[in-house]
Amino acid sequence: MKATSTRKELETVKGKLGDETDWGEVIASLFGPKQEWDAVGKFCLVQLDDLSKDEQTERVDNFDPTRLFDNNCPCCQPFLVKGAIVIYEPEAIHALRLGPKGTFEMAAFPVDRGSSKTASG
Ligand SMILES: [Zn+2]
Question: I need a surface site. Which of 15, 30, 108, 117 has the fewest CB within 10 A?
Answer without folding.
Answer: 117
